[in-house]
Design brief:
Helix content is 72%, strand content 7%. A hairpin with a 2-residue loop joins β4 and β5. α1 crosses α2 and α2 crosses α15. The longest helix has 150 residues. It is elongated, with a radius of gyration of 48 Å.
């Protein structure tokens, strides 16, 4: 009985275990299906998100590609515009050069026509001379026959008398003609001088401007030109506006040209650009900063140069504006001679001359140092440098004697003026005319003076010749027994022509002939 009940219990337990197993298995299967479904939903969600992210990435890539293409197109268009502007500038420069060549060709044509007219005139003059010689020969034959008949002279004697008479008549006639031509030349000298000066300015203006108004900056590479120009030219405009110069960037390799008539502005611009190139940061703000800094440094350098010049010349008590004006003369030149150094030399020479003449040497030095102060003023000041300098000195309280020296240091007639004015003018000429002072070397100058003396001494009628005023004047001595006044007039013109054609002189050379008579008696 017990065993049967136990088996029944065991059977129920077994059935319960099987039922529990089946229930648990069913629950497990249901949970597995739920988890599988949730995983499937998660996978689908991840796939949707991945697809959405991929779409976004594709859209973003396309947008960036479009923006990159647009940016490249803009850069390409800007580069094309810059190249087009450079080509237009190059075409303008070429056009200007062609116009300059056309003008020169026209001038050469006018010059050739003028020379041809002169040749024709010389031909006509030669024809008249031949005709005059024929007439003179007929007159000579007629006079010879009359002399032989009337004077009872031999042929040789008659020839000698006739030749002497004809030479005297010809000399007087030529001298009279020369005087007439000279008087006519004096009457037309002003018009002719203006014409010559205008022609000279047209021929030499380009060389002068290139020599006196242009500075060249060497670049490390041609790529630096683009950085100096900047985007759409903003850097070059900032440099030109800040310094007041013109920058010329052409096809010259690794070089930039600075053009300006004011040498201080040109020097400030050159120093500023060199510092910008060394610094590497080139943009408008940095340009203004560097230019302002260089300008302040230059003002200090100008002040120090003026103070040093006053110290070397031994001049004290100058106004601060005069000190600054003297300093600016350091950047002014005349004939490639520094105006500041020339002013110091003039002051020192004037002081020596005044001491030798027992005059006020301090006043002479002060006037000599300030005589060219007007050259430091800007281009907008009216009048020549002497008048402008005198007005500046008078405004700053300089004494009348110094003002008079500045006003009249180029005046030719100084009768009745202060002796200091004459001394400063003499010192000015000595400083500017000394050999080697302006655009030539000492050996070349001495050789030129020797050639001039040799040329004049080559004339048989000249006893002695002396070159004075550094080659600006020649004085020659002739004997009165050799020639008279009419012959002297012809000789001085021949010497002047020979000097003009043979000697390597610069500017005008004044030729003076002295017909000297010396009488000596020894008292015993």
């Amino acid at each position: 009985m017990l065993d049967t009940g136990l088996w029944i219990i065991l059977g129920f337990l077994f059935l319960g275990a099987i039922s529990a197993f089946l229930v648990g298995y069913t629950i497990f299967l249901r949970q597995a299906r739920v988890e599988a479904e949730s995983r499937r939903l998660a996978v689908e969600k991840n796939l949707a998100e991945a697809k959405e992210m991929a779409d976004r990435m594709v859209k973003q890539a396309l947008q960036e590609a479009k923006e990159l293409a647009a940016r490249e197109n803009r850069d390409f268009d800007r580069t094309q515009r810059e190249k087009s502007n450079e080509l237009q500038k190059a075409e303008k420069r070429i056009q200007k050069r062609e116009e300059g060549m056309d003008k020169r060709e026209q001038q050469l044509g006018d010059r050739e026509k003028e020379l041809q007219d002169k040749v024709d005139k010389l031909g006509r003059d030669e024809k008249r001379v031949v005709e005059a010689m024929q007439i003179a020969e007929s007159v000579l034959n007629e006079s010879r026959s009359k002399l032989e008949t009337v004077a009872m002279l031999s042929r040789d004697q008659a020839r000698e008398e006739l030749m002497k008479s004809m030479q005297d008549d010809a000399r007087k006639s030529v001298a009279s003609e020369v005087k007439t031509i000279e008087e006519e030349a004096r009457r037309t000298a002003d018009d002719r001088a203006r014409s010559i000066i205008s022609t000279s300015i047209q021929r030499l203006a380009n060389e002068f401007v290139s020599d006196a108004t242009v500075s060249v900056i060497t670049l490390p590479s041609d790529d630096m030109k683009g950085r100096i120009i900047g985007r759409e030219g903003r850097n070059i405009r900032a440099i030109e506006q800040a310094t007041g110069v013109d920058l010329i960037i052409d096809d010259t390799p690794e070089a930039v040209i600075i053009s300006c008539f004011n040498p201080m502005r040109r020097e400030i611009a050159k120093t500023s650009i060199e510092r910008l190139i060394a610094d590497g940061r080139i943009h408008p703000a940095r340009i203004d900063e560097i230019v302002h800094k260089v300008q302040n440094e230059f003002e200090q350098l100008v002040r120090e140069a003026g103070e040093r010049a006053a110290f070397e010349a031994g001049v004290q008590g100058l106004h601060s504006e005069l000190i600054m004006a003297l300093g600016r003369l350091k950047y002014r030149t005349t004939g490639q001679q520094s105006v500041l150094q020339h002013s110091i030399e003039t002051a020192q020479i004037a002081g020596i001359l005044a001491s030798e003449l027992d005059l006020n040497s301090k006043l002479a030095k002060r006037a000599g140092l300030l005589h060219d102060i007007g050259r430091s003023l800007d281009e907008d000041v009216e009048g020549n440098h002497a008048t402008a300098g005198a007005q500046l000195a008078q405004r700053l309280g300089e004494i009348p004697e110094v003002v008079e020296v500045i006003q009249k240091h180029h005046t030719e007639h100084l009768h009745g003026t202060n002796p200091i004015t004459v001394i400063v003018q003499t010192a000015n000429q000595l400083s500017s005319s000394r050999p080697g002072a302006r655009k030539e070397f000492l050996e070349r100058s001495i050789e030129r003076l020797r050639d001039m003396e040799k040329t004049v001494n080559g004339f048989a009628e000249v006893d002695h010749a002396f070159v004075i005023r550094s080659g600006r004047e020649i004085r020659a001595m002739v004997s009165p027994n050799v020639m008279d006044d009419e012959a002297l007039t012809i000789l001085v013109r021949q010497v002047a022509r020979r000097i003009r054609s043979d000697a390597n002189h610069q500017g005008q050379v004044k030729v003076t002939m002295v017909r000297e008579t010396r009488v000596t008696q020894v008292a015993k």
